[in-house]
Amino acid sequence: MNPPAGFWRRYAAYSADASAITLLALPLLWPRLRAAYRVFDDGLQALQFRIWELLDLAMARGDEPLRVLGLVTGDEVLRAGLAGLAGELLWLALAVSAVLFAVAAAWFIAFESSRWQASPGKRLLGLRVTDRDGARCGPGRIALRFVAGVPSWFALHLGHALAAWSPGKRALHDYLAGTRVELAPGAPAAMPSGGRAWLMLQAALFLGTVGFIGLRYVQLMLEVAEGGL
Q1: Which of 10, 58, 61, 112 has the most CB within a 10 Å radius?
Q2: CB distance 36 to 92 below 8 Å
C-alpha cells in the first residue's frame, strides 16, 4: 500500500471539490435564492415600517424607554413577521442543504468509485481512495463512506479531524466505511505547490474577513462613544 495522505493535503483536496460542487449547485439553487431574497426584502421592510409605527406611537404618548421596549417586544405584528422570516430561513437552509447533499453525493460516489479512485480535488493533489487493503472501492462502499461523513458535520468536524492524528491518517468516515486515503502511485510525498497556494489563499480570505469584521466593530464602537459624548 502507498503512504496515507496527510490532513492538510486531504483538506486542500476536499475544499477544492467543495468549491466546484457549490458552483455546480448554484444554477439549481438560484431560483430558490432569488425568491427567498424577495421574501426577506419585503419582510424586513415591513418589520422596519412597523417598528417606526410603534416608535411614533410611543413618542406621541411620551413613554419611558422600558415601556417602549415592552411595546416593541410584545407587538404581535412584529412577532408574526419575525416568525415568518425564521420559517423562510429554515426552508431555505433545508433546500440548500438538500441540493448540495445530492450534488456532492453524485460527485464523490461517481469519481471515487471510478478508475481514478479520486474526486477531481483528490486527483489534483495526488490522492486516491482505497479500502483497508489498498484495493479499489465499489460504488456501494464509496456511498457508505459519503453517508458516514454526516455525523462529523454534526460533531463540529471532530470526525474529520481524526485524520490529523489517528493511525493511518483515517477520518471517522474511513473507519466506518473501511476505507483510507493514500498517495496515488507516483505522487510526490510533499504537498504540491498548487495545494499550498490554495491553502494560503483560503487563509488570507479568512484572516481578511475576520479583520474586516473586527475593524467594522471598532468603528461602530467609536461612533457609539462619540455619540454619547
Answers
A1: 112
A2: yes
pLDDT digits (tens, 9 = 90+) for 69-127: 777 778 888 888 888 889 889 999 999 999 999 999 999 999 999 999 999 999 999 99
Within 8 A by CB and 6+ apart from 191, the residues are 6, 8, 9, 12, 125
> How does DSSP classify residue 43?
H
Closest CA to 185 of 106, 128, 122: 128
Each residue of 130-175: pLDDT tens digit?
Answer: 999 889 999 999 999 999 998 888 877 888 888 888 888 999 999 9
Distance CA 71, CA 129 (A): 60
**Rounded CA gap, 54 and 81, in Å?**
14
pTM greater than 0.70? yes
CA separation, residue 54 to residues 10, 66, 81 (Å): 54, 13, 14
Distance of CA 219 to the CA centre of its chain: 28
Nearest to 109 by CA among 68, 144, 70, 61: 144
Sequence-ordered strand ranges (E) for the chain: 127-131, 179-183
